[in-house]
Amino acid sequence: MPFLAENSGIAIHYGRNISDLSPLGSLEKIKGGINIERTNITNLNGLENIQMNDGIAIVENARLTTLDALLGLRETQVLLLKDNPQLQNLEGLDSLQSVQSLRIIRSPLIENLAPLARLHSIAGLELNGLDNLVSVEALSKIQTLDFLHISSNQKLATLAGLDSLRSINGTIAVEVIHNPQLVSLAAWKNLRTARRLSIVNNGQLKSLEGLEKLRKYPA
Question: Domains in the chain, start-ordered, CATH in brackets?
Fold first, then answer.
């Protein structure tokens, strides 16, 4: 499809018979973003050449196992990965450096965020319902956020990796909710400002150590 070199947006919804995106292989820039929801795809082959777009939403694709085709993606406004139960990991996001909103929701096989190690510019982050997530260490370059939501991650014990975080200034700000194995906030040792802070129902958390430098609340 050479005529698709630049497109104003692609939405593929409720495509249970769609199992192949390779006809989109000529796409490089998409102004309106990509929304792929409830298809039968196992991979994103066909999106290999995309370098920049307004947003990517990959939602409820029951057979999707890999994001490898996104290896060329360096920046996007929004990246939403939601309810993709067979997604093995985040490999394919290794080149991503800048994103406004990153939301990874109910993808239970993901154990770590290692492919996001180059990410340095981000406004909002949500990690929700990642049952096997044990580490966020790849986020070590992030210093500021507008919001941070970490909830219902059954195996996450520490926030190590967020050690560089200094300020969280959005209206939603910080929510750390129902992470039953979370035992420490020590990684927040450099956090100085926060507009709103909610720490709720983290049953193993016995100390607020890590918040000693919090000087301005609300920010």
Answer: 2-170 (3.80.20)
